Each structure stands twice: as structure tokens, then as C-alpha cells.
Amino acid sequence: DNRNVFFNVPAKYLDSRIRGLTLLRPPYGMLGSASFVGPTQLDNATVEVPDVAVPDLGPALELSREEDFSLFFPRHRVMARHLVDILLSLPTYEKFLCVSAVIRDKVNPYLYAYAMSVAILNRNDTIKTLPNSACLFPQLYFQGSILAGCWTEAHLFAPEDREPIEISRNWTATDLEPEHRVAYFREDIGINLAHWIWHVHNPHSGPPSAVNKDRRGELFYYFHQQIIARYNFERLSTELSRVKRLLNWREPIPEAYFPKLNNGLASRVWPPRQADARLQDVRRSDAVIDILDLERWRDRIMEAIHTGRAYTSTRETVQLDNDQGIDILGNILESSDLSINSRLYGDLHNAGHVVIAYAHDPDFRHLEKEGVMGNSRTALRDPVFFRWHAFVQNVFDEHKSMLPPYTEEELSFSGVHVRRVEVQSVGQEPNELHTFWQKSDYNIERGLDFSSGPVLVRVTHLQHVPFFYRIQVHNTGNRARNGMVRIFLAPKIDERRLPFSFSEQREFFIELDKFPIKLEPGLRTIIRWSNESTVTVDPKHTFLNVDKLPPGRPDQRTDKCNCGWPQHMLIPRGHAEGKHSTLFVMISDYDKERVEQKVEPDACWKGYSYCGLLGHRYPDKRPLGFPLDRLPRDEVSGINDNIETFLTPNMKIADVVLRHNDRTAPPEPLPVR
Ligand code: CUO
């Protein structure tokens, strides 16, 4: 059972007997290639380890237990690859469990958790569910002072007498800082978990079997494009302008960020970034990057985009100006192990994270660790994440603008007409979506090294009233058709309070759902509930403590899918007076789009839209973001540049109002299983 192989223990406690919990060390010093036999302890369970040849951990031992681990750093990628290779090569589940148990206390816990996560997702004998990272490593998600309170609760009170420790919504800044208006989005635990899990599902570096996922470069583009679109929707909901691209890397960065997170392992805080910090060349043991490197890579990538071709490391030419170009470009720009030429095009996006993360101490003279931008568990907290990724998005947009617009024929689905679309929130007027605040609890017991019994942290997050779509569709032919329903939402009004042109509004659409449907001849009304979305994960993966997950092998589990956008953040905040938005629904011809492959009934359709379908090809042949990913055809982008002109009969729009109520609802009881 993969629940028991994660544990986060400072090295100094490893041989201690504290509060009745014994953690046994393997009897050997360095493991080397010695074999290990005997009992070892995983949390409260003792695993009897048979005669297992313990692999040489090599580079994975270079990172001390007190340091951070992040795939943004090239040195850490080598360590992770080595450890993941070991974990994937073990021939049976039992050996995997035993070796995991034996090496757990040897390697850095963040590195261990990452390698185990990738192994669990890529082995075929494990449950494909990862434990909740916020419960395992609460120091990466909750402010340090809260953790001190949790220690007190755990040590002074019996489990039944403990109170939840509550975190206010305003714990990192005040409203003097305009950027703080969207802190509820940046610091949302579910969003930070979703980003981390996405990167574990789609690692940019590691063994080929883990990295070489269908359309992974394109998924990198699309997931982050959607994060920016969603962030901009929240900004427009809170009277902020759309995020500015971080274009000039030699000018000061006005946005400050003070994370107030502790690093639980090293007893240090995550460094802040003051307002107007300047990026500098980085000279540290784990990264050597010049700003000039970034500029050179950017210009080479832009040249490849504008000439429509890129060069491989063996000097062959690869065309970019086609549907596959975005996938190649995503791997180049991120960059991943799949980059066709990392010497020429570099490591632009990852290195940008590192340079920003080290702006406060680029040469390690102050012995300071990286800022939150240096870790994919914490990066979204910082406003500069979105400025950096708005730049990255802009590069991708440049590529998309080189592709011919979709023709009317490519957009149409002959014989299928969408007559009417609307949304209905429970107990509300039609075509209104309602948001409010809600409290929810995390049980961080497993992240507090020696606690027993639940210790709850209570957070306040955005929530929406459940709703459904009602889509009336007419199949005018005399045979059944297979359609793909694609649902998006965008703000109607820009920062100046003027209506968006379609050419501009197109970039603001957030995907809400995407699902296949059978259309018999005649009229049909499709009802689809908000919590069925293939963009989101089930809330229990966001809030539920891992200990509540039932044990079992894969065949006993149907709720394993935990990659996807958090359900509670599906709908942007909106405004007290109502934020006017455009709901866009298209039904396309699924017979032309379906990917022929064998998919098991329990495959992870929940959340596949942003994450990909784990263990399978992406099930929709269309470019991600279709049909809104390319510039509109000429007759749309001219004088009548509005969405009405874009529509073909298989599309329909509705005006939807997003209303925000400032009330806060109490926590919902955790599901009892
Ligand atoms: Cu997800 Cu920059 O890629 O953080």
C-alpha cells in the first residue's frame, strides 16, 4: 500500500524513541550494494524485508536531508532520474515496497517523495493515487506560525480535544498591496497541489518511460495557458488589469512577495523578494546561468517560430508550422528531456524560474536558499510566477499566430445544430453562477513528525454553488452521430469596461468541460453537472487527508485520479454586482477526433483535459484549446470582430453573470467512506 512509504523525519530523530514510535535504521552505514534483511518501519507499520539487494543510490545521496529539492535545478534532475530509475526497475510490487522502505530514511525527503510519486504513477502494479502533498509537507503550504500552533495542539491535547488551527485569508499581505487582491488564487492550496501533481504526472526530466508522454510539450503549453487565463479572469473580477508579461529581464521587478513559509527541514524561512528586485547572473553550486543565456535562448526560439522550423542537435530541420509544432516547441521552451536541441535552445523556462528564485542571493554569499519560484510546489504563490508564465505564453502565442486560422469547414459539424445553451445554479436564476467563501480542513498529522491522531488546519477558499449546463442540440440527419462537447467561459468586458473584441477575448477563455456524447437523430437536451467536469479532480483529492483513502490494489479503486484543476476553483470569483461573461459551447465531430486505443474502464477521465489520460494517448486529436487556440479567420477579425461572427451552427453562446457573495460557509463534513 503506497500510503505508508512517505514520511518526513529530520535526520536527528532517526534513531530516537519518541512518544512510543520507533524508527529503525537499517543496520548498515552507507547502503552501497549491500543487501538488507530484517524489519524496517514505515510509519506505524513494520515491513518485513526479505533478502533485497539494495541498489547503489549514487547521486541520490548527494542532497542532504536538510536541503530543498526541485527539478528546476539541473543537478537535482540527475539525482531524481537515478532514484526513479531504481524504483521503476524493481520487478515486483513487494520488492518495490521493500526497497522503498529501506532507502526512505537515506535520501532527502523531498527527493524521495518526488521519486516515489513518479514511480507510483509509472509502475503498473501500484495504485495511481498520490498522497496529499499539503498533508505530508505542510511547511510548503501553511504559514510557519500555524505549524507551531499545530505542534502545541498535538502535544498538549488528546485527539478528541483538539481544535482546528484557522488561517485567515490575509496572512501574507494587506490590501495596501494591490496584488494581494488575488492572493486567494495564488495561495490556494488546491491550485498549488494541482500544479505540483501536474508536474509529477508530466515530468520534464527522468527515465524515458516517465517523460515520454503523448503530447507532453503541448500539455505544458495548454495547462499553463489555462492557468494564466484563469488568473486573468480573477484579476478582471477584482478590478486589476491583466497580468503584464515579464519581458525585460534587466529592469527591476516591482512585484514583491513575502511568503512567510518555514522550511521545516532546515529551520529557515523561504526568502522574500523585495519590491524592485533586479535579476542577476546566478553563480551557485546548483545553477550557473547568465541573463544573457536567457536572452540568447529566447531569440533563437523566436527565430525558429518565425521561420517555421527548428534544428535538431544533429542539424536536421523540423517544421514547426503545423499541428505538431506546439508539442515540439513546448519541449524546447520548458525545456524537457524531449527538447530536440537543448544546446541551441537551452532551458529557457526552467532557468527563468531559477534566476528569479535566486534574485535575492545570486552567488550564495548570504547562504540563502531559493525563493518560492524555485519549486513547483510553491511557485504559484508569487505574483512573478504569472508574469514569467505570461511571457512564456506570449512565445507560444507567437507560434499559434503563424498557423492558418481554422476554416468554417474545419469548425463545422454538418447536420448538428446547437439550438440553445444555458447554465442553472442550484436555487438561483438561470445563467447566473454564484461564488462565495468556504472553510475546509486539512489533516496535517502525517507532516508533523511525531503526532498521533488528527491535527486540523482550517483554510478559507473560494467556492461556487453547484450548477448544470442545459444544452439543446438537434441532429438533423437520420443517423446517430458522436459529438465532442467543448465548454469554455470568458469575461465579456475588459479593464477599460469596454467589450472585448473576439480576437482578444479568445485568449481569456477558460475551459470548463470537454466530454463525448452520442446524438441520436432529432432534438436532445444534454444535462451536465459542474462536478462531472473533465477539467477538475474530485474534491476529496484536494482536501481529504491521505489516511482516509481506503487501502487496496488498483482493481478495488475507482476514485484514483488526482491530477486536475481543483473543483472549488472551477468558476472565477466574479463580482458582487455581477461580472458579465460569455459561455461558449461547441459540439464537434468526435468520429474525426477520437484516438483509437484501448482504454480501461477505470482510466482517469476525471481531470484528463489539462493532465492527459494517464497511461494512454491524449484521447482527442484536436489541438489543445481547440477551437480557440488560433487566430480567427479573416472575416471574423475584421470590422465585425466579435464572437457572434465566429460561430458556426454547431456552436452557441450565452451571457452568464458571475455573482460573488462575500459570505463564508462553514466546512462541509469530510466524506465518510
Ligand atoms: Cu509549472 Cu513554470 O512550469 O511552473
UniProtKB/TrEMBL annotation:
Protein name: Prophenoloxidase
Family that this chain belongs to: Belongs to the tyrosinase family.
Cofactor: Cu(2+)
Subcellular location: Secreted
Gene3D superfamilies the record matches: Di-copper center containing domain from catechol oxidase, Hemocyanin, C-terminal domain, Hemocyanin, N-terminal domain
Keyword vocabulary terms for this entry: Copper, Disulfide bond, Metal-binding, Monooxygenase, Oxidoreductase, Secreted, Signal
Start and end residues of each Hemocyanin C-terminal domain: 405-660
Hemocyanin middle domain mapped to chain residues: 137-396
MF-aspect GO terms: metal ion binding; tyrosinase activity
GO biological process: melanin metabolic process
Domain spans labelled Hemocyanin N-terminal: 63-126
One term under GO cellular component: extracellular region
